[in-house]
Amino acid sequence: MTTLQDVVADLSSGRLQIIDLSAPLSEQTPVLQLPAPFANTATFQMQTISAFDAAGPAWAWSNITLGEHTGTHLDAPIHWITGREGKAVHQIEPARLIGPAVVIDLSAEAAANPDVLLEPAHLEAWEAEHGPLPQNCWVLLRTGWSERNTDSQRFLNADENGPHTPGPSVACAQWLAEHPAVCGFGVETVGIDAGAAGGFEPSFPAHHYLLGNDRYGLTSLINLDRLPASGAVLVVAPLPIVGGTGSPARVYALVEALVEGA
Asked: With respect to CATH, is domain 17-24+68-256 assigned 3.40.50.720?
């Protein structure tokens, strides 16, 4: 059998499982809220064109309105000023959108402190246990935050001092952006930066360093608790929007599973 035939056979037998990491899109999907005077993205809206009625007796379809950065989505380099000369979504090579998943679990820490930061030490500890980061990998930060994504207030978690959500420190963002094996960085929160990152130097360092170094971001992921720390393969499928700074994406992982009797 060829490698691809093996994959098909393993999917059929259950030796490989597909884990959907994409949050459903609806009018309740939380979106980033920037303070005045900054402009905000559109929320998801769906308008019926026809539904087996006079406007279309044998078919149903709808128009949708949403921002590029709505729900589970990819950040392309041109989303940020440091990457403005870089790739738009349609220019990202497909090979960059499939790669090993590296899962860093800070769920216990985030439950105790929503402002917890991912540090280089966490990544170095992962390497000490699992070996060097694999080439073209996506580093995924598991925080348990996806449990909140049906409640916009809890998900954005903002007060008079701003949002309180986990994310990478300045040092960690630079570490990820400069590591030759890292392709992208994914989170369960609304953005790839920590809620407090507007006050960091530089501000929003995940955007600053990653997108400025031809790395990519993924946000609003779910089901990271179903992935192993290493060994899964991530598949990212954004819309190839010409000139797009980002795109809603279907993201899933291939995970080896134990089969009874195997």
From this structure: no
